[in-house]
Structure formats: structure tokens, C-alpha cells
Amino acid sequence: MSDKAENWKEAISNELSQLKENNTWTEVDQIPDGKEVISSKWVLKKKADCYKARNNSLPPMSQFLQALRFYATGCHQLTMGDFCGVSRSTANRVIHKVTAAIACLSKDFIKFPQDAEEIRTTQLDFHRIARFPKVIGALDCTHIKIISPGGEHAETFRNRKGYMSINTQVICNANLIITDIVARWPGSAHDERIFSSCRRNAMFEIGHYTDSVLVADSGYMNRSYIMMPLDRIITTEESL
Fold it and tell me: Are residues 203 and 86 in the same domain?
């Protein structure tokens, strides 16, 4: 028996567990009528840890594409590693390395209108869509699904839909480009609480954006600089 036999058994066990978690199949006690059993076999291959084997390191583009696949599919790191032919530890390092590099670029690409010219340009872009004046952003939150972080405060990440998440606040412009983002609140946090505590709200409160407004849904408190949908349309002006 190979000296790596226990490692192979563990790898197979992990693979089976993930297949069950993803509902790849349904276990049955006997073969249903009219169905046939499809034979299969395991192909086991030892993958190099590319971060330890420096002479076999991954090219930057390969690392970037692996991270993009992880973002797009939300698959387990082990599954991503299997698909890309690297070990789980390498997949983990690649994801963290690329994510950190992208995050460092956020200030160059995620920019909220600041001066009078930028504010006016953004307002005009929104006005062209629905003749709504003074708007410089559309505000809302979205839940980014995560695996339970564990610990005594893990349940604070469980949102009202029943799964663990980061409740992420996003403001975008008329071209659907993100101009502001807050991604540090657990899933149980309410949208209004997140906005009340953020820097962008403080800037509106001190009048930095003059008479500009944000459009949002009814999950936010009514403010002079937040416009929410009207329950009833009465006047001609309200029926823009």
C-alpha cells in the first residue's frame, strides 16, 4: 500500500462530501425501475504546491483567471484547485493574493462625484434617463453569500433569508458604474443602519453635495437627500 494512502482516502472523502453538498446526485436504496448504473472510476493525481515549488510557479495571468473563476462560480477552493490543476493551499493563496491586489486598486476606479463639475455631469446623466433632477447616485444593499466565519458572533452574519452573508452597500451612477461601496457589515445588519453609519451619509449631512439627492427603495429612512418611491401618485409632477 502506498505511504500516501491515507491522503488519497481523505481527498476522496472531501470530494464526495462536496458533491453531496452541491446536490450532484440523490442517494437511493435501490436502482429505480428503468434506470441503469453508469460505471465510474477515480483518477488520482498528485498536484504540486506551486508556491513551494518556485521553479513551477503560476504565471500572473493564470492566477488572475483562477481568481475570476472563483468569484464567478463561488465554488469551493478545493474544487477550483482540482479544475485548475493546483493544490488547495495554492488555490487559497492565489485567491487571497489576487483579491488583495484588486482591492488596492479600488481608490483608482471607485470614485464618488466630488467637485461641482463631476456632480453636474452625474446629475445630467440621470436626468436623461427619466427626467429626474439632482440625482447623483442610486443606493441599495445586496447580500454577498459567505461560508459561516465561526466563533461566538457567527450568527450575526445570517440574514433574513436564512443564509450567511456580508450585507454590502453600493451606490452607482446612471451608467451602472459603482461609485461608492461599503462591504464590512454582517448579513443581519439593516440597510438603513449601514447607510446611517457610513461616511457618505455624513458628507450629505454636512451639505457637501449641496442639493443633490440619492434614489433608494423604501428600506431607507426619509431624508432631504434620499428620494424613495411614492406609494400614491397624485400630482402631475409626481408622475415623472
Answer: no
